[in-house]
Design brief:
single chain, Glycerol-3-phosphate (1)-acyltransferase, 7 strands
Length: about 220
């Protein structure tokens, strides 16, 4: 008797699904608090950066605080933003459930990410979802942008999806607005070409980080105006 083929997971994004209900309720409750307390101020690096992202997409940002995911979502209010988070944050099944269904997030081993996990996220993006990542892999307390891990670039390459970089400036006091700069799409597949190797991946990560540093300058210049 022939074995039945395993059913391929369906990651196709839907306009609405009951599995997103908790996310929408929490988002509705927290949205006004984020706008009131952190007062996000979003700038764009040209007209191309202003274009809305419909369908699959990858957003990367520097990581300056625990509230970054909430602030980052205000730059893309028209989309559900899914996140990747480090699996060591999960202490029990309830926390895993909360991350999955309230924050639409998936765990990953940030120190030893497997290729299968990268393939999962690539397939998830291919389904038309918008994925948010912090390629530094940890929160930076000194304000400097740390070196980038290769996960975001690899997912971008495997899913053939451009990355949209965002620079987020940590505010120094509660009276200031929270400033962000959204950059132009960064096409990893185009830069690496048909043959993928670690050297090319590292080079692309460095180029992406350099562009983030340019966005940082734009952000600081905007503050002077």
């Amino acid at each position: 008797m022939e074995k039945k083929k395993a059913k391929k997971p369906n990651y196709k994004a839907k306009v609405f699904s009951f599995k997103y209900l908790l996310f929408y309720l929490v988002r509705l409750w927290t949205w006004w608090q984020v706008l009131l307390w952190w007062r996000p101020n979003v700038k764009y690096d040209g007209k191309e950066a202003k274009k809305k992202i419909w369908g699959k997409g990858i957003i990367v940002s520097n990581h300056v605080g625990w509230n970054d995911p909430f602030i980052l979502m205000t730059a893309f209010p028209y989309r559900r933003l899914h996140f990747m988070f480090m699996q060591e944050l999960i202490k029990n099944k309830f926390q895993k459930w909360v991350y999955r269904y309230v924050f639409l997030s998936y765990p990953i081993d940030r120190d030893n990410p497997s290729f299968s996990s990268m393939k999962f996220f690539a397939d998830y993006v291919k389904g038309g979802n918008l994925l948010g990542l912090f390629p530094e892999g940890h929160i930076t307390t000194d304000g400097n942008i740390a070196s980038y891990k290769g996960g975001a670039a690899l997912i971008s390459y495997l899913s053939d999806t451009p990355i949209v970089p965002v620079y987020h400036l940590k505010r120094t006091n509660i009276w200031r607005t929270t400033r962000m700069v959204v950059g132009k799409p960064f096409n990893v597949k185009e830069k690496i070409g048909p043959v993928l190797n670690q050297e090319k991946l590292n080079a692309v990560c460095e180029e992406l980080r350099d562009y983030q540093l340019e966005l940082e300058k734009i952000c600081h210049e905007a503050m002077k105006k």
